[in-house]
Amino acid sequence: MPKEVCGPVLRYIIRRLLQMSGVIVVLSLLLFLWLRSLPGGTVSAILGERATPESRARLEKALGLDEPIYLQYFRFVGRALRGEFGASTGVLPGRDAFDIFLTRFPATIELSFLAILIAVVVAIPLGYVAARSRGGWLDNASVVASLIGVAVPVFFLAFLLKYFFAIKWGLLPVSGRQESLGCTRVTGFFVLDGLLTREFDCSWSALRHLILPAFALASIPFAVVFRITRAAVLDVLDEDYVRTAEAKGLTKQVIRGRHVLRNAMLPVVTTIGLQVGALLAGAVLTEKVFAFGGIGEALAIAFQMRDYSVLQVLILMAATVFVVVNLLVDISYAVIDPRVRTR
Amino acid sequence: MTDPLTSYGQSRKARIDALAATSVAESGTVEEAPGLSLIASAWQRLRRNPVFLLGAFITVAFVLLALVAPWVAPHDPAVGYLLDKVRPQSNPVPGPEPGFPLGADSRGRDLLSRLIVGARQTLIVGVFATLGGFLGGLVLGTLAGAFGGWVDSLVMRIVDVMLSIPSLLLAVSISALATRPSQWTVILAIAIVQIPVFARLLRGSMLSQRSSDHVLAARALGIKQSAIVFRHMLPNALGPVIVQATLVLAVAIIDAAALSFLGLGNPDDRKPEWGQMLGQSQQYLADYPHLAFWPAACIIVVALGFTLMGESTREALDPKSRR
Fold first, then answer.
1. Following DSSP, what letter does each residue of A75-90 receive, concatenated?
2. In which element (H, E) is residue B73 found?
3. What is the pLDDT of residue A307?
4. From A86, A180, A315, B70, which residue has the greatest number of CB atoms within 10 Å?
5. A223 belongs to a structural domain
């Protein structure tokens, strides 16, 4: 990167980093207040409904719940920084909540990655073709298809796929992440692990388990990426430089590749990064249908069983990942598009 | 100054702001129909748009069904007519028989009647959640727009924080706070999530109108500030708000289903609602998928109707698409 580009980008990154730390403080405060206002609360969760006032008071003292609220918040932050969130009470009783996050997180990353891959591979070409034939039957059909994608609840789509491909036709596994093949664990990413240890049957099994949930989850980014691609291509097609290129007599391939697609991809690339939040919400629903064993399923169970330790670690980590990915999107945008840096 | 927390929030913001900007786009004439106002020319194009017509047809049919539901339903949706046919082991869900074309649910209640009456509850959830979001947004947006200064900064800061959190996750978190979940806690959770969207939309359209010619003219005539806001600015903001409201109605119905699926919905099923029926059908999925298919099909068709109508109206209002 030339020097005159590096400076502003660096300054931009530092500004966004500072902003991000502010965001995480606000989020941790919100999370703390939210946890404190959940019905039941920690004491009832541990002691049950029929606790005596004395035993409640004793436990409150032991947990530091009788201290001023700001002190409790600082304690909460301190514990969170050390990764101490307590033991799970519902998802996997007795296991350390942070451990549950660590073992389950790779599953959700694998799933989201494949879902985005599927969505991009289908949605970008489709969006491009739809924009080129604006108002034609293909355009109208794919616009309606993307709107149907919005109207179908993602967990119902997951169920449809599961019912037909797994239960009725038996083509793919019904639930879980992998058959029990005694696979070696290296990274926690099951497909990658199999490739690394050359246990290819493990990779294959993990991949087969991924297909249905990934297609269900892909419906969320698909609709968005398709719509953005179509809109971006339509915008670019109208630009003067495309008309100039046509007037110059450039070939269609050159105009498409160099002038239209490259410029239209700017908003598309950033939109993909922005889907992380929506994907996480979708993963909660999809993973529950397929009992997939990622953090989405853990979140769904934790909400149902009021597993506060797991809830706080998952939400805090998910929020952090969400904010970091957003930051990366911003930075990549600043690198691709010089106009952003001057804002 | 008002950078949103995440670029995710920023992109949602941009979408809302673009919609808000359509409320001042009426100046200038339209080539195909010179002299028509924005609304009139939008209607000219919508009348011939098959996508809009399909959406409007579905929506009107749904609302009519919801209105007449109790008189159309063949049976009482809360009475277990076929309860004596329910065998927990061998036959947990009675199949179709004369008078009960779709069979019954696991408590022997007529599925068809529950679907028909469910239209009304579903409409209630959608309309009240949207209305709650709109009213909350109206208060916040007008507050921010009218006072300006630090009130504006503070309100918009809160709005931006809320926009930065994925809406379904926020709705789930809010409904988890309810001690006793009910239909109203579901409506409240979904409404709260929609408040920032409407607030930003209303404030945006007020701001973009502040410097427009018709407001300038009104001010020059010496019309009171409150009259300008309520008689000149709010009516122009109506187009974008209606578009957003139709889209939110679809989202509200789908989100209510997701909350039920996660076990955070209304546990009282004497008054059926489609999202609740879909959420509760999960345990019989493998053997009796029709219990999920019917309410899901209803939700999809209705959500599609609202979305088609909202999206095509948005496109018609957008001056960019009028070329």
1. HHHHHHHTT---B-SS
2. none
3. 81
4. A315
5. yes
B264 to chain A, any CB pair closer than 8 A? The answer is yes
Number of domains in chain B: 1
Contact B8 A330 (CB under 8 A): no
Query: Which residues in chain B touch residue A284, judged by CB atoms under 8 angstroms apart?
Result: 168-169, 172, 262
The verdict on residue B44 lying in a domain is: yes
Of A279, A163, A45, nearest in space to B8 by CA? A279
From CA B85, how far away is CA B302, in angstroms rounded? 32
Could you tell me the pLDDT band of residue A321, with boundaries at 50, 70 and 90?
Answer: confident
User: In the numeric block, which tokens belong to residue B40?
Assistant: 């009139």
Enter the DSSP assignment of B34.
Answer: T
Cα distances from B273 to residues A26, B115, B123, B207, B221, in angstroms, run 37, 8, 9, 39, 52
B5 close contact with A: CB closer than 8 A: yes
CATH of the domain at A125: 1.10.3720.10
Q: Which of A4-18, A117-131, A142-156 has the highest mean pLDDT?
A: A117-131
Task: Give chain A's mean pLDDT.
Answer: 83
CB contacts < 8 A (A, B): 120
Type of residue numbered B86: V
Domain extent for A97:
3-37+83-342
Is A326 within 8 Å of B51 when comparing Cβ atoms? no
Residue with more model confidence, B104 or A289: A289
> Is the residue at A49 inside a domain?
no
In a domain, A142, yes or no: yes
The residues, ordered by sequence, that sit 6+ positions from A197 with a Cβ below 8 Å of its Cβ are A183, A184, A186
Q: Are B11 and B191 in contact (CB under 8 A)?
A: no
Our count of domains for chain A comes to 1
The residue written with tokens 């949930």 in the block is A213
Contact B262 A285 (CB under 8 A): yes
Mean pLDDT of B188-211: 87
Pair of tokens at residue B259: 């909350």
| CB-based contact B7 A151, cutoff 8 Å | no
Question: Whats the size of chain B, residue-wise?
Answer: 323
User: Which percentage of chain B shows pLDDT scores above 70?
Assistant: 90
Find the domain containing B48 and state its range. 38-79+100-321
The answer to whether A281 contacts B169, with C-beta atoms less than 8 Å apart, is yes
pLDDT per residue as tens digits for the range B43-71: 887 888 888 899 999 999 999 999 998 89
Helices (H), B148-233: 149-164, 167-175, 183-210, 213-220, 225-227
Q: What does the block give as tokens for B115?
A: 């679907």
Is residue A45 in some structural domain? no
- Mean pLDDT, residues B294-310: 93
Residue B120, in any domain of the structure: yes
Q: Give me the helices (H) in chain B, please.
A: 7-21, 38-47, 50-72, 111-147, 149-164, 167-175, 183-210, 213-220, 225-227, 234-261, 274-280, 290-317
Reported ipTM exceeds the 0.90 cut: no
Structure tokens at A159: 């169920």
Q: How far apart are CA B208 and CA A233, in angstroms?
A: 27
Q: What is the CATH classification number for the domain harbouring B253?
A: 1.10.3720.10
State the Cα angle at B271 between B266 and B274, rounded to 5°: 70
Global pTM reads 0.83
